[in-house]
Design goal:
single chain; 453 residues; alpha/beta; seven-stranded mixed beta sheet; five-stranded mixed beta sheet
Length: 453
């Protein structure tokens, strides 16, 4: 059994992610993450959710599992994922639960878990929870409590606003367009940015349980781009369903992903002497253009596996100040333990306001290198060790050597399907297209020769 993916447990609500499974996750997570508490002492968990129609069903099931382990369960209602992480960190809480499938359609849902320190769980802890569930875990015999916790959400909002106030500025004079994805930030984003003095227009702020991410949000950037230009806003902010990622567009409607956002914030941190060791932590999927731009500035780009959890672990290990993904998960360790779209937005907006520049000037920091992606079917049993084959590894080295530092090859196993994804970057789109097709053909031929397919 493999429940946890790169970002919690996820599946179609009611079938793949049933109320019964949610109950078992609540029981198992409660036992594992509350094991250090005194047996007679009270354990506390907080639960947040996005706007999907299935969220309350899953919340009730998880809460029942936790309460059977004696937990005091506090429901935050509709909140962004980073609010759960932050409130677990600063309150006396044993664990946090976020019910959301992020950018996926409403039919899907997910369960993300946070330890008492506010960080996502390690692989080892997830394996302990899975093992308990697989063993046939049943509810405990204790009786916990359930209560509402809206006052805690207000504390999260104040903490976000304090980030701007520390810079001794506000956002007066800025016109901001927001696409809230009909998700977790449909109220909070407008409220916070308005309180900070900005003029705010919002789309994607009428959730009905089934329209989360539907033609809105960070996976449908045309909505934000068109809305920004229609309102003649200075900048457009596009969040995903659970509010932990941010993509932006400038005053002209041009789009910028997490790589551009990271570099803009890192430049500001570096100018202030706050960019720890002059390092940005990214994943293997961040564009080579970012890496080359970092090198020109004396910034080192450290890459991890895909998933903001791995970025967070690397940042914790060395105390780095910023890291993130192309998709818009940006972690700012001074303020947060996980990606926070609204926090990232207020930091970027503060830089924009103080710079006096247009968003296009602030964000257009490098040329994005051409990129191509090809999928190759590979049996699950070898997809994680494919590059251990010396012939395939040698073919990859040959391609990268021809690029002379201005191209790279990444072979990444899919987390859910029997295939690997070949990603190649370089200066010439036609060349990388040809190389990706050739490499895919070479891998298929090698597997056939080994009688693996």
């Amino acid at each position: 059994m493999k429940l946890f993916g790169t970002d919690g447990v996820r599946g179609v609500a009611g079938t793949e992610l049933s109320a019964d499974l949610a109950l078992k996750i609540g029981i198992a997570a409660g036992r594992v993450l509350g094991s250090s508490a005194d047996e007679s002492g009270e354990r506390t968990a907080i639960i947040g959710r996005d706007t999907r129609i299935s969220c309350k069903m899953l919340e009730c099931a998880i809460a029942a599992g936790l309460m059977s382990e004696g937990y005091r369960v506090i429901s935050l209602g509709v909140v962004p994922t980073p609010a759960v992480a932050k409130l677990v960190e600063i309150e006396d809480v044993d664990l946090g639960v976020m019910i959301s499938a992020s950018h996926n359609p409403y039919e899907f849902n997910g369960i993300k878990l946070f330890s008492g320190s506010g960080y996502k769980l390690s692989d080892e802890v997830e394996e302990q929870i899975e093992a308990l569930i697989e063993s046939g875990v049943t509810p405990g015999d204790r009786v916990g409590t359930f209560e509402e916790g809206s006052m805690l959400v207000e504390r999260y909002e104040e903490l976000i606003k304090d980030v701007v106030f520390r810079e001794k500025t506000g956002l007066e004079g800025l016109s901001i367009a927001i696409d809230a994805a009909n998700g977790s930030l449909y109220k909070i984003a407008e409220s916070v940015l308005t309180d900070l003095g900005a003029t705010v227009s919002v789309v994607g702020n009428i959730p009905n349980g089934v329209n989360i991410n539907r033609n809105v949000g960070s996976t449908h950037m045309d909505t934000c781009k068109n809305y920004t230009m229609h309102n003649r806003a200075d900048i457009g902010l596009s969040f995903d369903g659970d509010g932990d990622r941010l993509l932006v567009c400038d005053e002209n409607g041009d789009e910028y992903d997490g790589d551009y956002i990271m570099l803009a914030i890192a430049d500001d941190l570096m100018a202030k002497g706050h960019l720890t060791d002059n390092v940005i932590v990214a994943t293997v999927m961040s564009n080579l253009g970012l890496e080359l731009a970092c090198a020109e500035r004396g910034i080192k780009l450290i890459r991890t596996k895909v998933g903001d959890r791995y970025i967070s672990e690397e940042m914790q290990r060395c105390g780095y100040s910023i890291g993130g993904e192309q998709s818009g998960h940006i972690i700012l360790s001074k303020y947060a333990t996980t990606g926070d779209g609204l926090l990232t937005a207020v930091c970027l907006l503060t830089i924009l306001k103080k710079s006096g520049k247009k968003a296009s000037e602030l964000l257009r920091k490098f040329r994005r290198m051409p990129q191509t992606m090809v999928n190759v079917k590979v049996p699950n049993k070898i997809k994680y060790t494919l590059l251990e084959d010396e012939h395939i590894a040698g073919q990859v080295r040959n391609i990268e050597q021809r690029y002379s530092g201005r191209g790279r090859v990444v072979i990444r196993p899919s987390g859910t399907e029997p295939l690997v994804r070949i990603m190649i970057e370089g200066d010439d789109q036609d060349q990388i297209n040809a190389d990706s097709r050739d490499l895919a053909g070479f891998i298929r031929g090698r597997l056939s020769a080994l009688d693996i397919i």
